[in-house]
Amino acid sequence: MAVSRYLVYKVKSTALNKHALFWGILFCGFWAVLDLAVFGSNVPPISEAWTYYVGAVYALLLTISLSSLGMSFYFTFLYGLAGLRYVTKFGKYSLKKLLFEDSVASLISTLFYGTIMLIMCIAIPYINKSVLISPANLGIVYLSIILLGMQVYLIGLALSLVVAKLNLARHARFISFLILMLAFLLFIPGNVANLPQYFYMLPMMGAGAIAYWGFTGHVPPVGAWWYFYRSGLVLPKVNIWLCVGSSIMWIVLFYVICLALVRRTNPVPVEEIVR
Amino acid sequence: MPIEVKNLHVWLKGDHVLKGVEMSIERKTLLLGPNGSGKTTLIKAILGMLNIDEGDIIIDGRSVRTIEKWIHVMSTNLVDAYSILPENIRTIVKLYEDLLDLDTSLFSELVEMFGIKEVLPKTLYEISTGQKKLVTLSLAISARGRYMVLDEPFEDVDPGRKKRILDIILGTESTVLLSTHELWMIKLFRDWDCYFMLSGRAYGPVRVSDLLEARLVRGDREGALLTFDLGGEKISIVKNVNEGIPLSELSSMEKMFEILYEAPVAQ
Q1: A-chain residues within 8 Å CB-CB of B74?
Q2: Is there a contact between B51 and A264 if contact means CB atoms under 8 Å apart?
Q3: How many domains does chain B divide into?
C-alpha cells in the first residue's frame, strides 16, 4: 500500500510546529539542563543514584514534551477536519487510510521527540559530571514513548472533536493547554511520598511510570521519585501492570470517542480557528 | 446527471440554517442571496464537509453521504477544502497534487497569469482576501472537477483580475455552481440558470436571460417565473407584463434585492 504525501507533510507539520518545538524541545531542554546540571549537583556521584535521578527527570520531561506535541496534533486536526472530509470524498484516498496515516505520522513525531529527550537526558550528566548512564531497557523506554504518544495523539484528536462538536472554537487555545496541564501532574509522584496506586490510572501517568521503569530498570515507588535514592523512605512499588493496562484502556477509550465523533462532527470553519 | 438537492435541512450551532432546500443543478448555475442566507452552508454540504440532518444531496446518482474516493468530480475554491494542514501554499499544492491529482502545471500557469507568484511561500492565512480568492480559484480549476463549486470568487478582487476570472469561468467545461453578490455581472451569465437563497430556502431555477426580461410584481401571479414567500407577502418575477419593476437594469435588479432581503421572510 503506497504511502501518501499526507503522511510526510503531517510529520513535518507536527514535529516542526513552532509551538511544539518551543514547549517540547526548548522548554524541556531548558528544564533538562536545570534539573541535571544545576539541581542535580546534590546527587551523589554514584552511577546508581544518577540513574534513578535521571530516570525520574526523563519520565517527567518525556511526558511534558509529548504533551506539547499533543497540542500540535489537536490544532492540526481541528484546523484540517473540513479539508480531510473534502479530500476523502472527492480525492484519491479514503478517510480510513488518511486517518491511519495521520496516526502513523503522529507516532513518528512522538518517537522523534522522545528520542531527543532521551539523548538530552543522557548527554547532559555526561557533559557536566562525566557520568555515563544508559537506559536499562531501551525496549521498555520506547514502549513507554509509544503508549504515551498514542495517548497524547488520541487525547488531542478527541479534544479537537469535542471542541468542534460543542462549538467551543472561541476557547480552542485555552482548551489545548489541558493536555499540557495533565502532563504536569507527573510532578506529583516526583515530589510526593506514598501516592495511591490509582493515581497511575490517570491518562499519561501510567506511561510515565513505565518510562521510569525502562530507564532505571526498577519499578518506581508510588511517590518521591526524585528523592527516593536518598530519602530512606520505604514506599510500595507502582503496580506496573496496572500502568500498562490503564494506558491501553485510555488508548482504547479515546480511540472509541474519536471514532464516534469523527463522522458526526461538523468541522469548525478555519477562519474561526485562525482568528 | 445533475446535482440534486432534496429537502435539505442543516442545523449549525443550534440554528436551522438550511430549511428544506430543493435544487437541481444540471447546467452552469448562479446562486444569489444575501449574507447569512445559507449559500456557503449549502456549498459545504454539497462538498461533503457538513453533516446532513435531513434530506440528501445526490451527485450523478450517488448520495454525498456515502461518496468516497471519487476523484475529478467536484472541485471548489472554498478555503477550508485546502486547509488540511497549516502549511505554505507551495506545500499545499504538492500535497493536493497527490490527494486530488491536481494539475500543478496548470496551477503554475494560473498563478503566473494572476501575477501572484510571490504568495507561494506563505500560508493561506498570511495573504490578503483577494489573493486568497485567486489562489483557491487556481486550485479549483487545477483540480479539474466535472463540477466546480465557487463561493464568491470575485469578492475583494481588483477589477482587472475580475475580468480574467470571469473569462475562465465562462470558458470552463465544468458545470459551475457560483455564488456571487456582483449583480452587475449577471448580464454576462445570460444562458445560466439562477437560484435565489433567502433565509435558508432556495428559489429557482430561472434562466438569467428570462430574469433580465422579467419584472418584479407584488402578489402571487399565475405563470410567474418565481414567487417568493416573504412572511405573508408574496412577490413574483413575471415575464410579459407591463406593471412592476423591470429587472433589465442594474438599478432595478438591486432594487429587487433590496425588497427581497429587507422583507420579513416566512419562517
Answers
A1: 89-90
A2: yes
A3: 3
